[in-house]
Design brief:
It comes from Paenibacillus albus. One of its GO terms (molecular function) is ribosomal small subunit binding. Pfam families: RBFA. Keywords: Cytoplasm, Ribosome biogenesis. By secondary structure, the chain is of the alpha+beta class. The protein has one domain (1-112): K homology (KH) domain (GMP Synthetase, Chain A, domain 3). Helices cover 53% and strands 19% of the residues. The chain has 4 helices and 3 strands, in the order H-E-E-H-H-E-H. The protein has helices at 2-23, 57-69, 71-82, 97-111; strands spanning 33-40, 46-53, 89-94. The protein has a 3-stranded mixed sheet with strand order 1-2-3. Helix 1 (2-23) crosses helix 3 (71-82). The longest helix is centred in the N-terminal third of the chain and has 22 residues, at 2-23. The mean pLDDT is 86.
């Protein structure tokens, strides 16, 4: 029962953070970000936010620094929108699964000689 609640709260955090990052944060270092997932601990004290960032490695690092600076604002806004008793601590991590998937796809395309079969 508790895992269902943690999953629902994680999805709500993902939705609200996506909206907050896109509309409320005004830092120019933040590029195009997609929140790909939220991993919430069972006691909901900590949330790992997985992000996919479009750009070079340098732009990704700048985005991570900008998000670290805005973490307090994001956390307080999240607490207002979802009304937690204790708002979880936010940890931002890069999600490299999209890049990994596109790399595998390009390798498969090269193996097949450029033709994609369905």
């Amino acid at each position: 029962m508790a895992k269902v609640r943690v999953g629902r709260v994680g999805e709500q955090i993902k939705k609200e953070l996506s909206q907050l990052i896109q509309t409320e944060l005004k830092d120019p270092r933040i590029g195009f970000i997609t929140v790909t997932g939220v991993d919430l601990t069972n006691d909901m004290s900590q949330a790992r936010i997985y992000l996919s960032v479009l750009g070079s490695d340098e732009q990704k690092e700048e985005t991570l620094k900008a998000l670290a600076r805005g973490k307090g604002f994001l956390r307080s806004e999240l607490g207002k929108r979802i009304r937690f008793r204790h708002t979880p601590d936010l940890l931002f991590k890069f999600d490299s699964s999209i890049e990994y998937g596109s790399r595998i796809e390009s390798l498969l395309t090269d193996i097949n000689g450029g033709s994609v079969q369905q």
